Amino acid sequence: MKLSPLGDRVVLKQLEAEETTKSGIVLPGNAQEKPQQAEVIAVGPGGNVDGKEVVMQVAVGDKVIYSKYAGTEVKLEDTEYIVVRQSDILAKVEA
Amino acid sequence: MKLSPLGDRVVLKQLEAEETTKSGIVLPGNAQEKPQQAEVIAVGPGGNVDGKEVVMQVAVGDKVIYSKYAGTEVKLEDTEYIVVRQSDILAKVEA
Amino acid sequence: MKLSPLGDRVVLKQLEAEETTKSGIVLPGNAQEKPQQAEVIAVGPGGNVDGKEVVMQVAVGDKVIYSKYAGTEVKLEDTEYIVVRQSDILAKVEA
Amino acid sequence: MKLSPLGDRVVLKQLEAEETTKSGIVLPGNAQEKPQQAEVIAVGPGGNVDGKEVVMQVAVGDKVIYSKYAGTEVKLEDTEYIVVRQSDILAKVEA
Amino acid sequence: MKLSPLGDRVVLKQLEAEETTKSGIVLPGNAQEKPQQAEVIAVGPGGNVDGKEVVMQVAVGDKVIYSKYAGTEVKLEDTEYIVVRQSDILAKVEA
Amino acid sequence: MKLSPLGDRVVLKQLEAEETTKSGIVLPGNAQEKPQQAEVIAVGPGGNVDGKEVVMQVAVGDKVIYSKYAGTEVKLEDTEYIVVRQSDILAKVEA
Amino acid sequence: MKLSPLGDRVVLKQLEAEETTKSGIVLPGNAQEKPQQAEVIAVGPGGNVDGKEVVMQVAVGDKVIYSKYAGTEVKLEDTEYIVVRQSDILAKVEA
């Protein structure tokens, strides 16, 4: 089962932020501030969206930073995704 | 009796989320968080909508995820439907 | 006396929802949830509306579902009408 | 002294709703719900309004229904007028 | 010192509404409801305003009715002016 | 160090409103109502701003009246400036 | 690891405002009003953004003033950045 986004929508999956505190304890993601980094899981076709021509600029596998408060959370087969418009993606994170 | 949507409207019918808890009890849909998956029942013709050309990208029978809070609930012959604009549909769910 | 709507306006008349409860008592429309089905009474000419070209897609006599909270109630010779924009009509109801 | 509206503005004058109650008492307009029927007193030239071409579709003397809450009340030589945009006029009332 | 408005702005000066009550007492403007009539003092050049072509339709000396709540009050050399956009002017008042 | 505004932005510096009360006491600007007159310090290049072509109509040294509540206060080397869009400038004040 | 902004986004890094009070105590940035000066760290490609053609007018290394309340704070490898749209940049600060 997979999500195939429409228009300029992009399906994201949040990156786990496993961090070690100074005392060496590993905090799971939930105990921290929600990270804004995510991986691109699926990309809509772009094209005419609300009467404007949109060219998609992200690709599956990209690491991205997206706008806090943007997007809709979706759960599919026990995995949580965020569906955002491409314009809610601020930047790619490159190695 | 059937609904024939105008413009870029799409008629959806929510998919029942019958789930079995770990103890084996089946919870009916009402006792859970409202699922966002729906099946496409009818699709408007698209074309010029609010001065913008809209091409319909979903078809009857598609399973879709739609935006929480979007759409209007409509009851016809004891069946509940949701009428949304195509732009409120986030993604198709494909097998 | 009749209403002749301007632009993309449509004059609707709510359909009475006379229903029989299980005990056989007929509840008049007022005692129930306001139905959203209506009949089209008059249709504006469409054309240039707010700088956008609108083609009317409903006709007098059509049964339609319209958006809750949309439109203006108007009383003319003791009959109540609702005047909506065509974009507030979600779907036609066909037999 | 007369009002000459600009752009797509229309000057209206509310029609008095003198009605006879069942007991035969005539209630002046003030004691009732504000009627929405009005007569067109003056019509702007239309043309380019906010970058959109507007063609005026009402004429002096037309009886019209206008949107509740729309328009600005103006008093000139003890007569009250309402100045609305043409798009706030819902329909003409024809005999 | 004079105000030279930009774009589609118009400089107005409120007309004093000196009125005589029935008992013959003259109430100065302040003691009454603020009148909406004003005289046009200066008119901007119009032209391209926010990407739209605006043609000015009022001239210095015109008496106009303007929208309540519109405009910015400006005091220059002890005289109070109101600077409005032309679209906030509802109508000219002609003799 | 100087501010070089982008797009249709204009850098303003408020004009001090030193006034003598009737008793001869000079009130510094802070003790009075904030004046809306300012001098133009720097002017952006205009051109394509949010997809609209903007031609700059003010020049360095102009005295202008600007919209209350508009603009962003900026402090640079102990001098306070206001950065506004040209459309927030209501009028030039000419001698 | 670096941020590569999309569309008309610009990655900024706030300039530290280390200041010496009159008594000679150096206040770290946190104890003061948040400065609005920032350095440009990365610049999006511009081009078609929401259907409008955007030409980027800032370059990496520019010192800029940006709009209070604009932008999204992003933390990457313990450094804090602000991602803004170019239209939220008011002016360049030039030496």
Automatic annotation (TrEMBL), chains A, B, C, D, E, F, G:
Subunit text: Heptamer of 7 subunits arranged in a ring. Interacts with the chaperonin GroEL.
Keywords carried by this UniProt record: Chaperone, Cytoplasm
Assigned protein family: Belongs to the GroES chaperonin family.
Origin: domain of life: Bacteria
Organism, as annotated: Jutongia hominis
Protein name: Co-chaperonin GroES
Cross-referenced InterPro entries: Chaperonin_GroES, Chaperonin_GroES_sf, Chaprnonin_Cpn10_CS, GroES-like_sf
Localization per Swiss-Prot or TrEMBL: Cytoplasm
CDD domains per UniProt: cpn10 (cd00320)
NCBIfam families on file: PRK00364.2-2, PRK00364.2-4
Keyword Cytoplasm tagged: yes
Main function: Together with the chaperonin GroEL, plays an essential role in assisting protein folding. The GroEL-GroES system forms a nano-cage that allows encapsulation of the non-native substrate proteins and provides a physical environment optimized to promote and accelerate protein folding. GroES binds to the apical surface of the GroEL ring, thereby capping the opening of the GroEL channel.
Pfam families, per database record: Cpn10 (PF00166)
DNA-binding recorded as keyword: no
Main localization category: cytoplasm
Lineage: Bacteria, Bacillati, Bacillota, Clostridia, Lachnospirales
